[in-house]
Amino acid sequence: MTMWNWDAFFGYLFSPFLLRGAWTTIWLTAASGAIGLALAGLVAAAMMSNVAALRRAAQVYVWLFRGTPLLVQLVIIYTGLPQIGLRFSVVASALIGLALNEAAYLAEVIRGAIQSIPRGQRNAGLALGLTPVQTMRDVLLPQAIRIMLPTLGNSLNGLLKTTSITSIISMEELLRRTNLLIQERFLTLELFVVASIYYLVMTSAWQIVQTRLEARYGRGHLRALDNAEQR
Amino acid sequence: MIRIRNLTKRYGSFQVLTDCSLDVPDGRVLVICGPSGSGKSTLIKCINGLESFDEGSIEVDGISVGDPSARLPQLRAKVGMVFQQFELFPHLTVEQNLMLAPRRVLGRGRAEARDRAHALLDRVGLLDQAAKYPAALSGGQQQRVAIARGLAMDPGVMLFDEPTSSLDPEMIGEVLDVMIRLAETGMTMICVTHELGFARHVADEIVFMDGGRIVEAGSPEEFFTNTRTDRARRFLARLLYPGELAQAAHVERRLE
Question: What is A6-230's CATH number?
Fold first, then answer.
């Protein structure tokens, strides 16, 4: 057995087959992250609702999806639900599983961030004649986003790698395609190093986006002003 | 015109407000004072529906505040409020703070809202701060911006909830100056404040509250020179220490 096959390594580094797998990882992350975030917003709203039944339902949801492994959830959605007549494609199952799982974690983050904004801010918005919805959108949310962005960013970074779990239901993302190639040629180390490089490039690119978002939503905040003065 | 009749509010078994009645005709300045926990802030927050109440009624320009069908956002658009902690929106610049509600609630265009914002900032002496974020301003400056933000809605009444209580002493004067000039324009004002110098010289009526009740109400001369109740006398004796007298003197100088 050879020690390290450079030709194979470089060959796979720019392999269209793997690049397409990486692209699947990217859109799967973006789509399930976006759906999960929207869902998390609804769950957070339910958590802060005056209606006890809604609060209870949100709690049960979060408890269920945070309390069981994503792997198990995916297998139940893809292989288990057809038993009771609910059939989803691989892509739909992956999206549903990832989004539901992500929403359970993010709901708590959103609720915590909104409730950390001083009560006086809400009163100030309402006192100006803004409706509760306008107050939420124009006054509370922009401030809450600043607080939750670091956590949301980490979470999306995590999600990007978590998508690899969907390979278990044969979703053809980066890890599954890597494994398929390994089964062909047994170049385990070379292929996993290539896959790791892909993941690193993707998470690094996201880190750049996250830094910019944090700067944008940090405007007006004391620390941002201090930095501006030091410059 | 604000009419409050027999207002009563409870938190569980604790009675915050008991049978409070008040009239504030247009163009008048009412000062509410009293020890902390006397219900002053709660009373003023009931006027624009930020606090609910259990019994009695409040009418602002003929609109009944406690009525479940009352459109609170519409009512609040006509009632400006200034808070103890300023409550400027930290993610918006000073001028954006003044533009948000006029654009969203009154439907003003960006240019119109900005012109109005600049005119008001000029009036409170802060036009040069328009593009800054609130955190870059001193407490006194922030409170002057907060007053301008309330005025940007062209309200018929301005409510002040302890507007100088969280300011450093040297900044109280600049905020009081703005309030004095506002009173001179004929604005209807209800001020919860301990600034007795302001009360003595600007108020048309002073209301003294204790234990959730209006204990005494009258003109400043009556209240300060002919205090009727022991509770109000004890309150005044405690407040009129030298620092307060200096503050009162500052207001007097400004008025001359």
Answer: 1.10.3720.10
